[in-house]
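Q: My labmate handed me this sequence with no annotations at all. I'd like to see what the chain might look like in three dimensions before we decide whether it's worth expressing. Could you predict it?
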Amino acid sequence: MTAETVDDLLTRDLRDDRTALVDATGREFDTHWLCTTSWKAGNFLRHAGVRRDVTVGIVGEGPLPLLAFFGTTLLEGTTQFEPPTDLADADDFRALVAPVAALESGDYALPRGAQRVGYGQQPEEPDIHHFDAGVWSENPAFPPLDVDPETVLLTDGARDVSHEDALEAASEIGESYGLEAGDRVVVRESLADPRAVIAGVLAPMLADGVIVLTGDADETTAERGEYGLSSESVPEPTRIELGDVSLE
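A: Here is what I predict for the chain of 248 residues:
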């Protein structure tokens, strides 16, 4: 598959019953679900002010955080996975998507006007938007997009990565490791590193492969696919080395 921007990986014509995502419990989600629910996530996050030139922090690595990433991407926003807790001086920071318990803990300091978007349990604090309920009730359609490939897709706080650079690096990983349709790539690195998003999420999407999430599951010995993304040894037959992701 070819794509100039990440939204090209979530278009209507790509929806079918092929498995696209597997969560830490082994539950499978098809491309129809991934595309449609990403659109719904984008529509929901729009209400929280997500748009181009703003940053959204995302905490966690399950299906819901991944949907928040795609929703932010569709709105031309920038995602920072696992942002620091002190964000009070980050003027471009618009929303924090995190487990409700983390948001209600008071550990995160956000700039004035930034929105808190929680997933998991029902929030008790009225100013926390409930991501789960909001996404499922949203319109499963999204207006046509014309995203500039130089739009910043990811940041780790020190380095920004555009759609163009991320997809180029993902394509190189797919080619160098020979990723094919149906291949499962197990993400065993934190998405806080943009290279993990590129190799563990975007590369399998470009190859019509499958993203396999491990989340917080404390298991390292069970083989879950053909490839394991990690800087350490993996139980999968082939290890994708994080250092092989080139962003030069």
